[in-house]
Amino acid sequence: MIELKNVCKYYKKGKKKEIILKDISFTIGDNKVIALLGPNGSGKSTLIKCICGVIKPDEGGVFIDGKNSFICRKKIISGMGVVFNQKPSFIVDLSVNDNLQYFKAIYGIKKEEYAKNFERLNKYLDFSELLDRPYRKLSFGERVKCEIASVLLHNPKYIILDEPTIGLDYGVKKRLYNLLDELKKEGHTIVVTTHETEYIEGICDEVVILSDGVIKYYGEPEKVLDINGNIKKITVEYDEVIDEELAREIEGKDFCKKNPNGLELTYYNAREKNKIISDLTSAYDIKKLNVVDTSIREVLEDVIKKIR
Predict the structure, then answer these.
(1) Of the candidates 67, 168, 285, 211, which has an alpha carbon nearest to the alpha carbon of residue 180?
(2) Do 268 and 230 touch, CB atoms closer than 8 A?
(3) Sheet (strand 16-28) strand order
(4) 124-150: buried (b, 16+ CB within 10 Å) or exposed (e) per residue?
(5) Is the pLDDT score of 228 beyond 60?
(6) Do the domains spanning 2-225 and 232-294 agree at the CATH topology level?
(7) What are phi and psi of 78, to 5 degrees?
C-alpha cells in the first residue's frame, strides 16, 4: 500500500517560495491502478518523484508498506519499477540485450525467471528484434518499449510509469494497458501519469486530477460524472443551412464543435437539450440527429480543460 500524507513541495525563487505540491493526501491500495491526470505544470512528475523517494517532500511524507519512501528508498527500490518521462536509464552505447543483462544482474534475476518474464513482456511490447541494436540507434518509440520492459523484468510489486505511452503506436499502447490490467489482477500496484484518458477507462480504479499542485478530484473515474454533471452529446448531420444568422450563433457557442459530417454539441440537462434541438431544427435542414451519453474519457478531458 502507498500512503501520501499531507505532501508539500516548494522551490525557492529568490525570496519567493513557489508551491509545487500542496497538502497532497491519498492512499493507493494493493492491486490497484491509479491515474494521475492534469495539465502540464500541475505537479504530476514531482509527485511521482516523491512517491519513488527520488526527492524529499518539504512537508508530510510518502509511505510504502509503512516505510518512508525517501528515508528507506534503498530498501524499497528493489520492489519498484519506475519509468520517468524521457529520462533514459539505458547505457546508450550498449546494445539493448547488454542493457537488459545489466538490469538482470542488478536485480539478481535468476536465468529461468528472466526468460519467463522476457517472453511475457515481449508478447505485449514486441521488442525482441531490437536486442542486438545499440540503444542510441533506436527510435523514440523503440526506446520507450525497451525502458518499460527493463523496469518490469524483475516483476516489481509497485509499478510507476510517467507518461509511458509517448512515442508508442496505437497497437502497442493498447497492448501495454492490457499488460497493466493483467499485472493488476496478479496483485501489482500501478501508478500512471498520462494525458491519454481514453486508456484509463476500464483499467483504473481511481483517478487523481491535479492543478497547480492541488488535488481537484480524487475518486473513481465513473464518479467524475457526479461532480461535473452528466454531460450528454448531440450529433447532427444536415443538408443545408436554413437560417444563416441562427447557424452562426449556434456554431459560435463553446459547446458546439464542427466536424466533417456536421455538428457535435454538449449539454447537461433536459432544458438545454430541448433548446439546442429547437435551434438546430430552425437553423438547418437536418438529415440525421442523435443524442448520446458522453464517455468518462470525454468528461475527464473536459474537467482537465476547465482547470487549465
Answers:
(1) 168
(2) yes
(3) 16-28, 2-13, 59-64, 67-68
(4) bbebeebeeebbeebeeebbbbbbbbb
(5) no
(6) no
(7) -65, -20
Exposed/middle/buried for 229, CB within 10 Å: 0-12, 13-18, 19+? middle
Closest CA to 30 of 65, 71, 56, 75: 65
| Residues in contact with 4: Cβ distance below 8 Å, sequence separation at least 6, in sequence order | 24, 25, 26, 27, 47, 50, 51, 60, 61, 62, 63
Query: DSSP state, 25?
Result: E
Rg (CA), the chain: 23
pLDDT at 196: 67
pLDDT at 294 over 60: no
CA distance linking residue 191 with residue 98, whole number of Å: 28
Report residue 244: phi and psi, to 5°: -65, -40
Q: What are the residue boundaries of the structural domains of the chain, listed by start?
A: 2-225, 232-294
Burial of 267 (C-beta count, 10 Å sphere; 0-12/13-18/19+): buried
CATH of 2-225, one of 3.30.70.1350, 3.10.420.10, 3.40.1210.10, 3.40.50.300: 3.40.50.300
* Separation CA 182–CA 201 (nearest Å): 15
Q: Using CA atoms, how far apart are residues 238 and 252, in angstroms rounded to an integer? A: 17
Say whether 220 sits in a helix, a strand or coil: coil
Instruction: Give the pLDDT mean for 242-271.
Output: 86
Architecture of the 232-294 domain: 2-Layer Sandwich (3.30)
